[in-house]
Amino acid sequence: MVKLPLPVIEAIRQSQHLLVLTGAGVSVESGIPAFRGSNSAGPDSPGQAEMASAAAFREDPAAVWAWYERRLQNVAAALPNAAHTAIAALSGLVPQLTLITQNVDDLHERAGSPTVVHLHGTLSASRCSICNQPFKWGDSQRPGETQVPPRCLACNAAVRPGVVWFGEALPEREERIAFRAVRDCDCLISVGTSGLVQPAASLPRLALLAGATVIHINTERIALKGPKEYALRGNAGELLPLLIRQAFPECFMAS
Ligand code: OAD
């Protein structure tokens, strides 16, 4: 069995407040492609860049809605992988765990993570583009049977996907939780994120500055900036279960 670096194992084993930050790479092994780096959808796939903005929605709301509906269907057909399951298990092994994801899927929840902070919103939380009223499919409006996008039941404006688009602010509550946790945690594991989209990208650096140990798990090489920063290179679905088994071997002993 591959032995992971001792300081990494110890940081997780001794952590009193562990912050796990996930990005698209954590859902790759569930069949959902990343946006950038290895296992990304590639340049030919219909782009996030063209669809993920308020301007695109204003210009062609039906096309943007349909693009997100396809993503929602892909997520519904996907299952949590070993990385999601390992993160859910970790929440029962450390005194405090904050899970922050940039992903708009619900795979952490379905893997059993009790609380998930969605920094970029979720595909399933559609809301009115004008009055922000949450949208629920009603008796008279069902997917595929109505206007696209559907209309708000309160004000009749177009309903929009519940995700954060480029140029938009993060949801206030989630942003506050994330920035508080980053100051309070003693260890941060950053899983499957390219670290290119702000402000989420600044969280590992801020945790380092606040004195935490930072561990990156990524299929690509990560440039390290401090003595308490480590990188484990490989698939999250292989490395996270390994990490837990080595940090908490007593929980995995055969009885
Ligand atoms: P990216 O697609 O930018 O980065 C995914 C990272 O995961 C890359 O560094 C890959 O090398 C790595 N990766 C791929 N497969 C992996 C695996 N099996 N195990 C470990 N790592 C793997 O995703 P994010 O950083 O999450 O925004 O992207 C940030 C934001 O940009 C997204 O939330 C989205 C996008 O535009 C919104 O939707 C608002």
What does the largest sheet look like?
6 strands, parallel
pLDDT under 50 segments (min length 5)?
none
Determine the mean pLDDT: 92
Strand order of the largest sheet: 3-2-1-6-7-8
Task: Provide the succession of SSEs.
Answer: HEHHHHEHEEEHEHEEH
**Span between termini:** 21 Å
Bound molecule types: 2'-O-acetyl adenosine-5-diphosphoribose
Query: Rg, please?
Result: 19 Å
Portion in helices? 25-40%
Structural class: alpha/beta
Quantity of strands, as a count: 8
Overall geometry? elongated
Helix segment count?
9
Per-chain topology:
Layout: H1 6-13, E1 17-22, H2 48-51, H3 54-59, H4 61-77, H5 82-90, E2 96-101, H6 107-111, E3 117-118, E4 127-128, E5 159-160, H7 172-184, E6 187-191, H8 203-209, E7 213-218, E8 229-233, H9 236-247
Parallel strand pairs: 1-2, 1-6, 2-3, 6-7, 7-8
Antiparallel strand pairs: 4-5
Helix pairs in contact: 1-9, 5-9, 7-8
Bound molecules: 2'-O-acetyl adenosine-5-diphosphoribose.
Describe this structure in words.
- A six-stranded parallel beta sheet has the order 3-2-1-6-7-8, with helices on both faces. Strands 4-5 form a two-stranded antiparallel ribbon.
- Strand 2 (96-101), helix 6 and strand 3 (117-118) form a beta-alpha-beta unit.
- It has helices at residues 6-13, 48-51, 54-59, 61-77, 82-90, 107-111, 172-184, 203-209, 236-247; strands spanning 17-22, 96-101, 117-118, 127-128, 159-160, 187-191, 213-218, 229-233.
- Helices cover 32% and strands 13% of the residues.
- Helix 1 (6-13) crosses helix 9, helix 5 (82-90) packs parallel to helix 9 and helix 7 packs parallel to helix 8 (203-209).
- The longest helix has 17 residues, at 61-77.
- With 255 residues, it is an alpha/beta fold.
